[in-house]
From TrEMBL:
This is Uncharacterized protein.
Length: 97
């Protein structure tokens, strides 16, 4: 079975398809602010509404997975992600690392 969701205008602009298989859908459980303070859906689902461009602050580690190097990167918005070499190679924080 499939369900068609009523998506927000931001999601529609990003061309997210509104139809999902029932196996992918889960009951909504609100965030527990005591256990996980400051967790907002905007941090999980970046809709690109932030007008400021994010920049790499520092490279804090690396790992090799399936013969590809990944670099743990701290961004100006505070998030840490694992990025492939080609995404960080031309940055000053990578040179400093």
């Amino acid at each position: 079975a499939a369900y068609k969701l009523d998506l927000s205008p931001d999601m529609k602009r990003r061309r997210i398809h509104p139809t999902f298989n029932a196996n992918l859908l889960r009951m909504y459980i609100p965030n527990d602010d005591v256990k996980f303070p400051g967790r907002h859906w905007e941090h999980i689902l970046d809709l690109g509404t932030d007008p400021k461009e994010k920049s790499v602050l520092e490279v804090i580690g690396h790992a090799k997975r399936n013969s590809q190097w990944g670099f743990y990167t701290r961004w100006s918005d505070g998030f840490i992600t694992e990025e492939p070499l080609e995404n960080v190679r031309q940055t000053q924080p990578f040179e400093d690392y």
